[in-house]
Design goal:
alpha/beta, Rossmann fold, 2 domains, eight-stranded mixed β-sheet, 21% strand, elongated
């Protein structure tokens, strides 16, 4: 459980912080010798200046001074890496305000699911992540297709340094999403968590928790899913805010989509039609067959394949109808604002 951590042996500081938390109703942990997990699970750490030799690695450290400020205070703050210095007698209101857990933005989680293999869900996922990042959003692309070659290949990022699923095998459910995201390769300004030859999402014991935690550190999280019947995809559907079901305009694609739409999560589905040249099926026929509207259509464009084969990825693709479809789907995601929860 996330908590505020106070590192002190000073009875006055302990008493004052206990009074503060009676106002804020924050979760408070007081210790003079914190464990690693206590530091990791703290959203903010308050360190008594008198605690000599304490070394703490954390992005939110406050140096608490019980007494007068001095030149040594600022030296201690620099050594500790403290963002703030709070004088106990003068900063009560400020300390009460900063004992409250920070609001954490939770952006939408978007699952791109193929009705059948080869429907084009991976291309859609990459293009959505690239579009979001180009428009100023913090975007993360996650590979949840255990039978793909790795979404980093589609992005042209297979040689880019950073963690893949196999590198996260040691992480527990308490891992910080922000820390995980910071280790991932970046391509076209979005982060990528991909499978590789060493392992995929299904080999990670806490994969779903990692996905949620990374989602807490991103404005939007795009997940490239495998086929809808797999346990991994079903687990993703449980936590997704939006599901884009990619349906090729073929008889087989329609049959698979019809079965997928009987899924318990079908109320989250938005049907995206991938036009297959020469199939003889149009959007109206497919919509009538499925009994749901087609939100947008993605053309089959050889230039997309060429971009990927040449290692350029899809970050800068501008292909007329394809780009318009990505814009429409991005607008669909933004219809409902991200919600705020207490961290």
């Amino acid at each position: 459980m996330a908590h505020a951590l106070v590192i002190t042996q000073n009875p006055r500081i302990i008493s004052e912080f206990e009074k503060f938390t009676s106002v804020t109703e924050s979760e408070l942990l007081v210790t003079s010798n914190p464990r690693e997990d206590e530091i990791r699970n703290a959203y903010r750490i308050f360190v008594d200046q008198a605690m000599q030799g304490i070394i703490v690695s954390h992005p939110e450290i406050v140096l608490v001074v019980d007494g007068e400020l001095s030149a040594a205070t600022w030296q201690n703050a620099m050594q500790l890496g403290a963002m703030y210095v709070a004088q106990l007698s003068q900063s009560r209101d400020w300390l009460i305000e900063h004992l409250v857990a920070p609001a954490e933005k939770v952006g939408p989680i978007v699952a791109c699911v193929p009705a059948v293999g080869g429907a084009g869900a991976s291309y859609l996922a990459v293009a959505l992540a690239a579009y979001a990042s180009r428009n100023g959003a913090t975007a993360t692309l996650i590979d949840a297709d255990d039978f793909s070659i790795g979404i980093d290949v589609v992005c042209g990022a297979e040689e880019t340094q950073g963690s893949r699923w196999a590198d996260l095998a040691h992480l527990t459910s308490a891992a910080s999403g922000l820390d995980v995201r910071g280790t991932l390769p970046i391509m076209d300004s979005f982060a990528i968590l991909s499978a590789d030859s060493r392992g995929a999402m299904r080999s990670h014991p806490t994969a779903l928790t990692i996905v949620e935690q990374v989602g807490h550190s991103s404005d939007v999280t795009i997940i490239d899913c495998g086929r809808i019947g797999t346990p991994e995809t079903q687990a993703i559907l449980d936590i997704a805010d939006f599901v884009f079901l990619v349906v090729p305009s073929t008889v087989r694609g329609c049959a698979a989509a019809n079965q997928a739409l009987s899924n318990a999560h079908a109320d989250k589905f938005t049907v995206v039609l991938r036009q297959i040249p020469g199939s003889g099926l149009n959007a109206l026929t497919i919509s009538d067959t499925l009994g749901v509207p087609i939100f947008t259509q993605i053309p089959t464009d050889q230039r997309i394949v060429e971009q990927v084969e040449q290692g350029f990825g899809l970050g800068n693709v501008n292909l007329g109808g394809f780009t318009r479809s990505i814009q429409q789907l991005s607008s669909r995601i933004c219809e409902e604002p991200a919600h705020v929860v207490a961290a």
